[in-house]
Amino acid sequence: MERILLELYTPCGYRKRVKTLAPIITLAVALIASVSWGHPVTFKDGLAVYSKHQPGMVQLSANYTFHRRAALGLTHVRIQLPKQTLEGTVGQMNALLYRYNGPGSQGNLYAWGGAGTSWHNTERSGATEEIQWTPLYMGGVQADFETQRIYTALQSALLVKGDERPYWVRYRFGIAPYIAEYHQLQNWFILQATWFPEMDAHVKFTPMMRFFYQTVLWEIGADLDGRPWVQLMAHF
Amino acid sequence: MRRLLICILCAFVSPTVWADIPPSKPMMPNGPGVEAGGAHIVITVKGMVCAFCVQGVEKKLRSLPNVKDLAINLKARKVSLWVEGALPPDDMITEKIKDAGYEVEFIERAHQVAPTPQSP
Fold first, then answer.
1. B50 lies in a domain?
2. Assuming Cys at both sites, which of A172, A233, B60, B108 could form a disulfide with A217, CB separation 3.0 to 4.6 Å?
């Protein structure tokens, strides 16, 4: 299997690979609109945009919180599995099932689900290309708890495309070395454990750093095999 | 293992470099805008633990009527509102905090300035 170090979605690169306009429009919508490993539901009328990049997997998401407990989202995902590349876009509903607001702490239980389509190009006899569309479904749950000093989260998600049903479970634990105000940069040291049986037989550990500045968050890390992890997130 | 050690070293070094970029907006007891007839309201918010939380709370509270200025102390989980004119009632403030996803712990109307007598 070809090993990809880092995939970055750019309009140019994407057009060269896919050679159609529809996915470019979808990608543009996903970039403008996008969900999060952070908060699938933000605040009423809030917009969250994020992208995740790691070898063999790219996710671009957006969500709009129309109610204090619900958001509409759009996610574009590309996962390189051993046998095929799964790529598609889904519209989804994110729900905040439960929130605990404590003095100095917060806990959440989220769930989301949605449907969309995946596609791949097939070559007919001759030079004509045809896009094959297949229904794609996505679902997941996330539980998290955080204070100003510690952060922990457990997430599981599933994609369904015909007989392919890749799923993953991620657990994170983070520590903030200091408490920053809103106008200061906040750092977090995070250790992430990922079990993604379709991609790796074993649990992968990824130490990373999270930087938080006002409404923008970015994470940079690498797993113990040196494969990078990058996540960007912004709230509006 | 060497990569892990380098990552941990970078993690410990970077906060000292970046920690204090711009100064925080101070929580002044009298506020920048307390004038005749104005008031200073302090709200303690449950669940507000991160910068994203602050953003939601700030956006919602700024939409309250007559709010002239606002400052948030994330460490203390307190929001200071400087209001001119009619004060927003507690239930309106509570609803805005709920829309942001959090809960009100206390609302203190900490400072009320009496109107200056009008000269004839």
1. yes
2. A233
pLDDT digits (tens, 9 = 90+) for A31-81: 433 334 567 899 899 999 989 998 888 999 999 999 999 999 999 999 888
**Among candidates B47, B56, B77 on the partner chain, residue whose Cβ is nearest the Cβ of A42:** B56
- How many CB atoms are located within 10 Å of the residue A53 CB? 17
Which residue on chain B is closest to A46 by alpha carbon? B56
In 3D space, the residue among B46, B47, B36, B77 whose CA is nearest the CA of residue A182 turns out to be: B77
Q: Tell me if B108 is assigned to some domain.
A: yes
| ipTM (interface predicted TM) | 0.71
- Whether B52 and A215 lie within 8 Å, measured CB to CB: yes
Instruction: Give the closest of A38, A104, A207 to B4, CB-based.
Output: A207
Interchain CB distance below 8 Å, B47 and A102: yes
A1 is a domain residue: no
The answer to whether residue B33 is domain-embedded is no
Are residues B100 and B60 in contact, defined by beta-carbon separation less than 8 angstroms?
A: yes
